[in-house]
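Posting here for the record, re: fe (ii) ion.
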Amino acid sequence: MITAIASRVEVMKWMEDFVHEKMTEFLKSVEDSWQPADLLPDARMENFFEEVKNLQERARDLSYDLLAVLVGDTITEEALPTYESWLMSIKDLPTNEESPWMRWNRAWTAEENRHGDLLNKYLYLTGRINMREMEASTQYLIADGFDLQTDNDPYRAFVYTSFQETATNLSHRRVAQIAKKQGDGMLAKLCGYVASDEARHAKAYKAFVGKIFEADPNEMMLAFEDMMRKKIVMPAHYMRELGVDMGKTFGHFTDAAQRINVYTALDYTDILSDLVKEWKLETVSGLNDAGERARDYLTALPDRLKRVAERMRSPQLEYKFRWID
Ligand SMILES: [Fe+2]
Ligand SMILES: [Fe+2]
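Prediction output follows.
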């Protein structure tokens, strides 16, 4: 524990052993990891076309909204270069290649890279997706980047990742449940595998923030408050389609997710109240006046947002995405 008021650089340096420990706990080695090929038909096999035919039959009854959400999720996962460069641009992290922070960033990216790969191949094989349109959206999203409003600050960045990994765990899990109901057990399995990776990542990032709270409670509280006042935006908030104005596609994607209950405004508040509990905000000590006010704001926020979310109606309009013929 750091007693005197430490700078962010010192806190990050002090956390290196902890990050190493969490990395072994929450990331898997390559040897222990599933690969997309484990979950998809093998093109070397004689029964490949038979298996693809079965895959296409199972995917035939997937609803339009579910497919749209799945394409949006895939594009989000495939914009991984943006997320890796964002992680690498966080200030105050030790930058030598062998620092546990840098190893974490690389190993996290390596795990995440399997997600887009798996979902992309699956969607291609279903025969229900206009792949060119989807690929153009991915290229747009990587080129457009994002603005998460974390100001390259590690405290804000890890609030963001704690929130976001929890949200992706939830949404992939929900897609898995719906896919199962709609008769596609294979898709349910794929999304379940992705969801369980996201759950491990969420645990690690939450642990990072918990550790920062030990060393620098006031600054951590203020950073959390700042992120929640700005609101957590989705990493794919600039998502767009060829020939469609920026902003439109993303709104329709989140509408579809809300409509089929994959990710809703209530989920946003549930995740927030989870984080408030996880980091035991009520019992954090060492706060100054601003820190106390931030705590008051944060502990009251879930109920406030919940009342707003409960009044929100599920969006009705079914938009025709260019991704789906
Ligand atoms: Fe992912
Ligand atoms: Fe993730």
